[in-house]
């Protein structure tokens, strides 16, 4: 535990110096253990595990563009994202780790107690065991505060889910070198720092009971629309969704160009698929190679917040992504990479994007750049923002949008599969730093 955050930052610097890390770009056709299928061009690991990169055709979408093709990561196995919680002198603390991921812009970020794919924790790589894993997969070792199967980024993953679990323990456990206990107030301060608290930690923290959240008062209040009305709206859009997804060979994905070095869009938009060689002496294996998805620009993920009868509400949308497991999920007001829309007509820009980008400073509740999942995405960063609009902002909104309180979203979040990962990340920011 740290008496102040200066001690934490000193500890983090020491952990960086204590281990050697190196991430080197590598051609896709020379990645150790990886190969392209000679017929389809799909990228696979020689073990048949971990993940693969396929092509996907998407039609019937109600998005700004109704049809497209793209590469997508196929990782059907469920991983474990788990945080241990323990009270010290009556104050809840979370056990987090300083973890290197090859896609992190700054090498080390704060990860959950356990962050592991099934291939990792079943040791397909023949490396070291995942610390503390048994506390999450063996029942009865602690008191569960939350446990839900949740989707990952639907624009880049095909039907990917991970278990988000929080376990409260009373027993003392050894704290390994790269791990530390942090209070919830300390985590709230660290969430204001760019690229420090990783995506997996943020999504798990969204499941904490609101009574534990430093800004938990934002989760309380009488909603303008009861919860059954919100669920009715979501179910309607799920049943009306006509999105059709079809696998296509990666080598023949329309608009994409494969070279020996990388896979990229013909207009240099969206993202690239690149290769990296990795060395990290404190990981379960000390070196490996892999493909990664590298976005071409920074994204914007934002809530429009309005008080209705004095109660804060956030504006959400019903949104289907290319790889969303259950079709439509509840998404933020704005979720996009603005550069991807620069070539489209003004009317096809994401709705409310200008509202969140042009907000005056006094209206911004929080504004922080966070990294996305560094195990699969290379230097992927999004600006997370919440903007409170004045009372003359229209309460009636287009059919694909709906007002909800943060408390309602937190309530449905515990059941899994209804909120996308971007909303869950914003909820964490609302609960800790808004």
Brief digest:
It holds the Pfam family Hexose_dehydrat. The protein has 434 residues and is of the alpha+beta class. It is built from 9 helices and 24 strands.
What CATH architecture of the domain at 217-243 and 297-432 do you see?
Alpha-Beta Complex
The radius of gyration computed from the alpha-carbon positions, rounded to a whole number of angstroms, is: 21 Å
Helicity range of the residues?
10-25%
How does the helix and strand content classify structurally?
A: alpha+beta
**CATH top level of the domain at 217-243 and 297-432?**
Alpha Beta
The amount of beta strand, in percent, is: 35-45%
Overall number of strands: 24
Q: Which homologous superfamily in CATH is the superfamily of the domain at 217-243 and 297-432?
A: EvaA sugar 2,3-dehydratase subunit
GO molecular function, one term: lyase activity
Domain dTDP-4-dehydro-6-deoxy-alpha-D-glucopyranose 2,3-dehydratase: 6-208, 229-430
Organism: Streptomyces spinoverrucosus
Binding site for dTDP-4-dehydro-6-deoxy-alpha-D-glucose 1: 34, 117-121, 200, 373-376
Description:
The chain has 434 residues and is α+β, with helices and mostly antiparallel strands. Helix content is 17%, strand content 35%. Strand 14 and strand 15 form a beta hairpin. Helix 5 crosses helix 9. It is globular, with a radius of gyration of 21 Å. The mean pLDDT is 94. Pfam families: Hexose_dehydrat.
Features:
lyase activity, Nucleoside Triphosphate Pyrophosphohydrolase, EvaA-like, seven-stranded mixed beta sheet, EvaA-like_sf, 9 helices, alpha+beta, NDP-hexose 2,3-dehydratase, 434 residues
